[in-house]
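Q: What residues go here?
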């Protein structure tokens, strides 16, 4: 007698799309080893949503049984392009250098979907030997393929592709521009800083989470001091996302000369995102001149900015912040007293103990737990070695 798994496998052949989709979802829960071949076949379904569900279900089932990928490796040469792409996805989900050769061949597939999936999988495996094939994909006619190749080479930190990535910063596809900036940040070659500076300083390059935002992010990751003037200028940009990214980059670079624009942004920027980023940057820089502005930040109208200000004060560890942090215990948002008490733990001033003990009666369990942890730390400091 056929059991439930057999019935579901049969349902994968139904002409009704909904039945096929339901069968895949159910098999994903069953995780029956018997269903693996049928799910791999379903990766070639004519409906994309069913195909993607089949890939996920096959991956979950293969993972649950720790099965090898012999079948998926064989299917990567299937006549069905959708199934070939699904097989490439599976090989990326379970990275194994033994599959590099099959995936490298797949980067030459006539189907762009297969090439993209193969490129992504090679990036997940991370074998430097695949970088040559991925660099070829940077010139692919498909933007999806180019984008996957950019991400993969960034993960590999392939320095040999840097010039190609710089050229692709001007690709017509916005996602490729963004992925190039992120990849260059990961690779860490400071020779690209002038190109990123020009983009970050070019209003025509696009703002809101576009290439200028990510160019500033990449400059912060590179830590090249040539970028400091343009990043400080970026704090005055009309686009709030550019201002926020510039603030974070300056924080990453631990740039003390950025204190005036960062403190000004914390105090008066209209965007809560920018104020939040400014508070975070000030905490990362760790300069005590930021303590007073951050204390003021504890009273910001936005709860996230107040929380980040408390965290930043904990990083700076200036005793002048103890009383203001204790005052923040009364904040209506439970995230703020929790951040404040943890900051006091980092400062390590035992004079805060009575106030911290009072938080053991707080209505929020996470605040009570944070207080209990800090009390242990402060009491240990009080006793001494």
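A:
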């Amino acid at each position: 007698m056929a059991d439930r798994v057999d019935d579901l496998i049969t349902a994968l052949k139904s002409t009704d799309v909904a039945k096929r989709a339901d069968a895949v979802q159910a098999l994903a829960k069953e995780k029956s080893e018997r269903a693996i071949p049928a799910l791999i076949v379903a990766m070639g379904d004519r409906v994309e949503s069913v195909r993607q569900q089949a890939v996920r279900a096959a991956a979950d089932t293969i993972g649950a049984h720790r099965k090898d990928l012999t079948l998926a490796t064989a299917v990567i040469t299937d006549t069905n392009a959708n199934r070939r792409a699904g097989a490439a996805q599976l090989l990326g989900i379970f990275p194994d250098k033994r599959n590099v050769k099959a995936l490298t061949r797949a980067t030459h597939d006539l189907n762009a979907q297969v090439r993209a999936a193969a490129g992504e999988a090679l990036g997940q495996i991370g074998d430097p030997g695949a970088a040559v094939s991925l660099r070829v994909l940077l010139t692919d006619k498909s933007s999806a393929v180019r984008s996957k190749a950019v991400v993969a080479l960034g993960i590999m930190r392939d320095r040999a592709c840097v010039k190609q990535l710089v050229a692709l910063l001007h690709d017509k596809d916005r996602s490729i521009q963004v992925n190039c900036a992120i990849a260059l940040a990961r690779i860490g070659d400071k020779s690209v800083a002038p190109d990123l500076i020009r983009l970050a300083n070019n209003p025509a390059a696009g703002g809101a989470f576009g290439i200028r935002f990510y160019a500033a992010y990449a400059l912060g990751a590179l830590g090249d001091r040539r970028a400091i003037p343009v990043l400080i200028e970026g704090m005055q940009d009309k686009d709030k996302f550019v201002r926020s990214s510039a603030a974070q980059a300056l924080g990453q670079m631990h740039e003390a000369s950025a204190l005036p624009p960062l403190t000004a942004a914390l105090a008066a920027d209209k965007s809560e995102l920018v104020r939040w980023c400014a508070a975070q940057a000030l905490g990362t820089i760790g300069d005590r001149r930021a303590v007073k502005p951050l204390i003021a930040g504890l009273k910001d109208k936005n709860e996230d900015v107040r929380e980040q200000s408390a965290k930043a004060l904990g990083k700076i560890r200036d005793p002048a912040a103890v009383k203001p942090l204790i005052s923040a215990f009364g904040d209506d948002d439970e995230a703020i007293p929790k951040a404040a008490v943890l900051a006091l733990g980092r400062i390590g001033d035992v004079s805060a103990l009575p106030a911290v003990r009072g938080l053991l009666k707080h209505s929020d369990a996470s605040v009570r737990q944070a207080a209990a942890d800090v009390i242990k730390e402060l009491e240990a400091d009080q006793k001494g070695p």
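A: Context that may help when evaluating the design: The chain is about 65% helix and 0% strand. The domain at 1-67 is CATH 1.25.10.10 (Leucine-rich Repeat Variant).
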